[in-house]
Amino acid sequence: MLRKLMVLTLVMFIAIRGAAGQSCSADIVFVVDESSSISSSWFDVAKQFMSDFLDCFVNIHDIWVGVIPYHCVPRTYFSLSQPSDPSIFDGLLKAGGLSRIGLAIRYTQATSHFRDGVPRAAIILTDGQSEGPTKFREPPD
């Protein structure tokens, strides 16, 4: 149900922008929780959601997608680009460990190479329970 709601929201966003005569471009990074608190079935649902998203948008709009899985340490699984094959998510495996959402968000900000002049978004797929520091701290100068 949640997956259908998220896809519906994104469909409405792109349809409204398209109806207004605006470009339907976007850079979207999926930040995916692969910590120990995530069940294997939930992780499979998250992978299916990302695959369904590609089926709906990437081939008909200028949508670039990136994937950053995270647990104790975030990593780049797929850099921002325009993938055409939803099977790219098949190799994404659940790692276990602590859920550090704040660290994953900072990593996303620092490593995602968004295109200039294109709307950008990060979609965080998680159970919502962070096990690390959650306050954002500016790095020292």
TrEMBL record:
Keywords: Signal. Residues 27-141 form the VWFA domain. The keyword Protein biosynthesis does not apply. Residues 1-21 form the signal peptide. The keyword Signal applies. InterPro entries: ECM_Assembly_Org, VWF_A, vWFA_dom_sf. PANTHER family: COLLAGEN ALPHA, COLLAGEN ALPHA-1(VI) CHAIN-LIKE. This is Collagen alpha-3(VI) chain-like. The lineage of its organism: Eukaryota, Metazoa, Chordata, Cephalochordata, Leptocardii. The gene is LOC118423002.
